[in-house]
Amino acid sequence: MTDTRHLDRELAAVAELKRFLENERAGDPQFDDLVLDAIEGQTAFHEVVATLAREARIVTAMAEGIDPLLDSMRARQRRLYKKEEMIRSAIAKAMDAASVPKVTAPDLTITLRAGSSEPKVTDQSQLPEQFLRTKVEVTPDLRAIRDYIADTGRAIPGVVMSNAAPVLTIRGK
Description:
This protein is mainly alpha-helical. It has a domain at 5-112. The chain has four helices and two strands; from the N terminus they run αααββα. It has helices at residues 5-24, 31-42, 45-97, 142-152, and strands at residues 102-105, 108-111. A hairpin with a 2-residue loop joins strand 1 (102-105) and strand 2. Helix 1 runs antiparallel to helix 3. The longest helix is centred in the middle third of the chain and has 53 residues, at 45-97.
């Protein structure tokens, strides 16, 4: 787990430095520049943020690197399930051909029984209404809503725009 305590400690140091500078340099027109320079020179805030950003990039690379492994493992899983199905089918055919309904071993019992009959619909248009299910799903089109408000500037009843969260961008050099 990522340890962000250093970031919390540096953030506290930045807040303390800003309070000190506000008392010392009240009314200075270059106060914002002074604060930014002081934060960079008097704290490890920039280094801690850069270190955590590097770690975020590494974690992203690791997460993205898992995708090909997941694809490979899912393919393997499908092959294993297919193999299991083939083995079970071969056992069922052999037991049926040999007219052996039950095989007992020390660690398991295998039985073969007649399966249950399941309905198979051949023409849905001929089914009586009582045997049909209707699904209706109504969901808001958020993209259309956002575009309409952005284009027209007009409100839509039942819609409020959320406050956008800040976006952090990390670029490598």
